[in-house]
Amino acid sequence: MSAAAAAPSPEERVRASVLGMILFIASETMFFGGLFAALFTLRAQAPAWPPPGTPAIDLPLPLVLTGVLLASSATQHLALEAGRAGDVRGAGRWLGCTVALGLLFLLGEGYEWAAFFNEGFTVSTNVFGTLFFTITGFHGLHLAAGLAILLLAGARARRAAARGRRVAALESATLYWHFVDGVWILVVTSLYVLTALA
User: Which of 32, 161, 160 is closest to 87 using CA atoms?
Assistant: First the structure.
């Protein structure tokens, strides 16, 4: 077998931007892993969880926001598939839906934070408050960054599709968006569901 026959075709190769995003996601996984390790370590050592001073954790809003993010992963997958098929308008429509759902999620999180602040629950209330606002805050920052990445990738994908090239930027952005959505599943499970059931 010749070396040329063994080499992957251009369509089969992992693009540099996709590989770069995979490595970036790996580093972000370690970052969030450290936050969740701190949460579960402090929770295991606490005599009571959640600590005194923590307001009741209501599940309806976080579960609705979870549905919003899961829907955004679906619309982003459809945007990527449309981009791969050369359907620039379809990709743009689905990408617009993803961005709208992401903004809706951030508005919901902002509403929840404002409600907690009005109750006097802040980052300095207790260790749960520190962890809650740190984890949800960093997730929100990552989601906002994801929205910017999606918009930039959408513009690059339009240019790439016009030249008949692969939409690698959209592939990378989609990987990141799915990562941020996956992190939220861990956030809602550990900070909301397990705390509400404690």
Answer: 161
